[in-house]
Design brief:
It contains 3 helices and 7 strands. By secondary structure, the protein is α+β, with helices and mostly antiparallel strands. It folds into 2 domains: about 50 residues; about 110 residues, Nucleic acid-binding proteins (OB fold (Dihydrolipoamide Acetyltransferase, E2P), Beta Barrel), CATH 2.40.50.140. A 5-stranded mixed beta barrel has the order 1-2-3-5-4. Strand 2 and strand 3 form a beta hairpin. It is rod-shaped, with a radius of gyration of 61 Å. About 15% of the residues are buried.
């Protein structure tokens, strides 16, 4: 049975705070106050804010750098073009061909010997001049023949077989220039010219000769 006061009401029960809680609140408040006085709480907050700002600036800086790298890459100095190693084309778009030695063509300078050599044609009378490249020993297998290796203007080298049983010997040496007329016979080495003398028998052709230093040997 509840205790009733003089006025017939239940007495109010006051809730009292435990002593330890009061002490704890006091201690926490003192610690916070001391930290504020020493700047620890504010410094920590400032440091956190500063670190956040630094991180933000670093992130934005990285973004700027990346954008700057793209910009500099797109608008930087133009790249140098390496020189081409291919040979320059000739007019008309054709490349130069390697020169190959060709068979000499005939000309008035060689009396048509190069053309006769190209066609492998024989029994043809020619008249031209050339330089003695080599003097050979006389051929005594039949009629005696004085022999020269002569180079004509187009580069063909021929053998001249001069019958000295019929015509006088020509006093020419290597390096001398002679003029001659005779009958050309084709050979693989360039050809042979013979009949460089007056005809031995009655023939229609006027015969041949060798001329050296203004004198004709026939």
């Amino acid at each position: 049975m509840a205790f009733m006061n003089n006025r017939g009401k239940q007495p109010s029960m006051r809730r009292t705070r435990p002593v330890w809680m009061t002490v704890l609140i006091f201690v926490i408040g003192f610690i916070v106050y001391a930290m504020n006085q020493k700047g620890l709480v504010g410094g920590a907050q400032s440091g956190g804010q500063a670190g956040g700002q630094a991180g933000t600036q670093q992130t934005s800086g990285s973004s700027s750098n990346s954008q700057g790298g793209i910009a500099s890459g797109s608008s930087g100095a133009p790249s140098q073009t390496r020189p081409s190693t291919q040979p320059a084309s000739q007019p008309g778009g054709t490349q130069p061909k390697a020169s190959t030695p060709a068979t000499p063509r005939g000309s008035a300078d060689d009396g048509g010997i190069a053309e006769l050599f190209r066609k492998q044609q024989s029994d043809t009378w020619i008249e031209t001049s050339g330089v003695i490249k080599k003097s050979l020993p006389d051929d005594s297998s039949g009629d005696k023949h004085q022999r020269f290796i002569v180079r004509v203007a187009t580069g063909i080298e021929i053998l001249i077989a001069h019958n000295i049983d019929v015509a006088p010997r020509v006093p020419a040496e290597e390096g001398d220039t002679i003029m001659f007329r005779g009958e050309y016979e084709w050979t693989e080495k360039g050809g042979t010219v013979h009949f460089t003398h007056a005809p031995k028998f009655k023939r229609r052709d006027p015969g041949g000769w060798i001329e050296f230093e203004g004198k004709r040997y026939e």
